[in-house]
Amino acid sequence: MSLTKYIKAETMSEKPTYEELEKQIAELQERADKCHSEAIKYRTLFDSFPYGITVSDKNGGIIETNAVAEKLLGVGKEQHEKRMIDGDEWWILRPDGSEMPKEEWAGIIALKENRLVTNCEMGIVKPGNEVVWINVTAAPLPIEGLGVVVTYNDITELKHYEKNLKESEERFRKIYTHMSVGIAQISMDFFIEHANEAYCQMLGYSEKELVGKHLKEITHPEIIKENLEKQAQLASGEIDHYRMDKKFIHKSGNLIHGILDANLVRDSTGRPLYCLGSVLDITERKQVEKALKSSEEKYRSMMESMKNPAYICSSELVIEYMNPQMIDRVGRDATGEPCYKAIYENDKKCSWCVLDNILKGEHIDYELSKTVNDCYYSVTNSPIYNPSGKVSKLTIFHDITRIKTMEAQLRHASKMESIGTIAGGIAHDFNNIIYIITGNAELAMADIPEWNPAYDSLKEIKTAGFRGAAIVRQLLNFSRRTDEELKPVGAVSVIKDALKLIRSTIPTTIEITHNFPDEEIIINADSAQINQVMMNICINAAQAMEENGGTLNVTVDKMQIKCIDHIYPDISPGQWLKITISDSGPGISNDIIERIFDPYFTTKPVGKGSGMGLSVVHGIVKSHHGAIYVDTSPEQGATFNIFFPVVAEKNMPNVTRSEDISFGNGEKILFVDDEASIVDMAVKILKRLGYHVESETNPIKALEKFRSRPYAFDVVLTDMTMPKINGIKLAASLKEINPNIPVILCTGYNSLIDEEKAKSIGIDGYTMKPIVVKEIAKTIRDVLDRKK
Predict the structure, then answer these.
(1) DSSP 3-state assignment of 165?
(2) pLDDT for 582-623, tens place per residue?
């Protein structure tokens, strides 16, 4: 409304004079100027107020904001004043970081409930997801058309400070609680107010038990007076800190040693509040010091009584001390002499000398081999710190000759096991080849009369095949995976029979002497293999004495082992058969002694030996759970000591075999082997024995065939080692389909199975390759008869 119109409106009842009108205009102009000035003042105050201000109408629409509000909320004035105080554009957070529902917003509460809302803390998520924390006050406006005024100040920095302070307090609380040094807060009148975990553990109390205790209750009587005097000086402010070695009394009554650092804590005005004491537990250190002192007192007696040779030398390598054992080893007391000359017989410092490392405080160990007394030593070198500050070297010799010997035996056993694994694999392939040769030879012999010249040739082929099978058995014996059955046998009788054969084999220039017990000694063994052990060792001995003649002695005895002996480390306590075979030959040199059991190792000329003799002996002995040792010296002959465990059983069963071939009665056989040549040959043999045969070279197809006709077969013969599925798994699958089907397992070699294991898992028959016609015929007939 213009000023002229306003004047007219004010004076419509009467017409003012010119002077009155001029006066009214002046008054009104003055009032307008005053209002304008006030408006500018309040606007300036509104805009420059340090808090953000938002004013809404009665419906909650924002009609006015100041610059601080725009900055805090991140929304421009024009955009801001288009919003509602409860608009969805706002993203408000609670103090804990969760989203704040609208009904908790201060402005909405003030508007709806028409009341003042103060100290409402909330977070505003600005564009860009920046969070500004504000403290809000909202009040209803008693002006018509207006709603509420909301003021808010930025407390983001305060929130960060509070967060950091809280984290700092938590961090220091954890440090205080968990630090390894004991800390206690002591009141000005010497009572415990707080204690951390280390302090409690040191004294054996819980914090609850410690709080309220007087210092004298945990202090050793010897130190109470000194401790309380210093504590009183601290409490009075006379001193701010003191340190002392303090003796505490543990809850159990034991003495605890600690280094106490006590500090006075004051408030901002300097008034003493409490004492803070930190204690480093040195009980263990005190105990170590005591033990060290005792150890130092016993040092010489300990060195004197030490069973290991030891000496001490200076940094100049001059011997300062030798214990009696070292004196015995060297042959004199070499104190004052250079260690390299007296101990190691060198003219200058040893190339392996570790003195420089010892002077640096290091501990050095090394091994010394074949020294002056022909022993192996583990040598330990350690620094000794003298009171003068000089460092000496303590050297102790530990005799490890026995350990080295056992390590060599272990390496040899590991090597033999690896070679044995290879031999076992070769044996499997040989058996398949020999099976094909001997089987086809038997088929051919059955097809021609004995007067035919080819019959003898086939017979020789068959004989050669079985000789090859014997070599396979030797390989299996060597690999310690023989499937030969061990049974109680009279070892003395077997050895006597072997010597009869040996006597007719070796030259008469070699005398054989023997010493046998009167009683028979029973062991679990394969007689043929024990015979082979005797033959191989005795023939080797005879060949060693062949040029000049000599004596071969065999002694058999029963030996009671009471405990494990380092001479015979593989022999456990119990009764053992001991076979001693000695000769008067040239002996075995040290550089080859560790290789004599290696396969194909020989010192004989070409044609004189294959190098398999002793390796086979080793395999047989190990497969019989025995042990073999060699004692030899150059030009002193060689002695083999062989041990086998003695058994109490004396019932040695006699096994009789029928020479007649067992024929079939038209029964149907399923034959499975992955070798096609073996399948063809086996089918021919089985058909001639009177059986109907179906065959498969694929065990998966054989299983499918059986599944389609589970009751069409009377017995299944399967190889053990086949691709995709082995004989054991095939047998299990067949019996799942038809539990009553008999299964015979044929194998040349496999580490997973032997006859005993086969029986334990339900295999009905077991036979080793190469298969002899009579044997397989009897096995099949026995299995079928048992089925009936």
Answers:
(1) helix
(2) 998 888 877 777 777 776 556 655 444 444 568 788 888 888
